Amino acid sequence: MNIDILVILGIAIFCGFFVQTLIGFAGSLISLPILLLAVKLPDAIAFISIFYLFSSAFMVHKEWQNIDKTTILRLTLTSVIGVILGIAVLTYSKPVILQTGLGIFILLYVFYVWVGKTELVLGRKTNWAFGVMGGFFSGVFSTGGPLYVISVKNSVQEAKSIRATMIGILALVTLIRIPALSISGVLKLQHLKLSLIILPIFFLAQFLGTKLFPKVNEAQFKKILLFLLTLSD
């Protein structure tokens, strides 16, 4: 892999995981389009998954007290089902139409939040569906975060708890996704070797995101969430 690809990988991981650390999701949302300038989708998903694993190991420990464990448990089974289905699609098909559908759905949700007079309330079955879809799109594109945000916002209100719970859910998804990607042949040793070269850049992104988060108030946090959801189309 040449130096140009390493530079793009470094830029993608820095931008993505700075936002991921600051907000609690959107690492893949920011990283993926940049990575696709240099590598194919399965390789991009492999790199993002590795850095999610690094991020999870640090952030879950740091944010454990703020994580809503009930929400995590509720989404565990549905996420497992969704991730396995998503990786099967990633491995054996070209899921471009699915990505377009996800973008349209999220834009409609953001529009509803901005103009609606009442908060969207998800029932138990709908929450389960969001868990499966979140896992599915995490498996296919590593972009299930927006769907998890919609589900988490129905259970958790405080900004620091939303962020921490999103960190916990994405850690859970990563623990499912890494072995599944390895078994399917998408994740290879070469991906890990190149990721280790970029590791200092990743640490810098996490450091800056952690330092900046206390300066973001509740209103700003929720506006940033909606902005990132809009970008995710």
From TrEMBL:
Gene Ontology CC terms, in alphabetical order: plasma membrane
Record field: transmembrane: 7-38, 72-90, 96-115, 127-150, 162-180, 192-209
Compartments, record wording: Cell membrane
Membrane topology: Multi-pass membrane protein
Keywords of the record: Cell membrane, Membrane, Transmembrane, Transmembrane helix, Transport
Highest taxon in the source lineage: Bacteria
Assigned protein family: Belongs to the 4-toluene sulfonate uptake permease (TSUP) (TC 2.A.102) family.
Record-given protein name: Probable membrane transporter protein
UniProt organism field: Antarcticibacterium arcticum
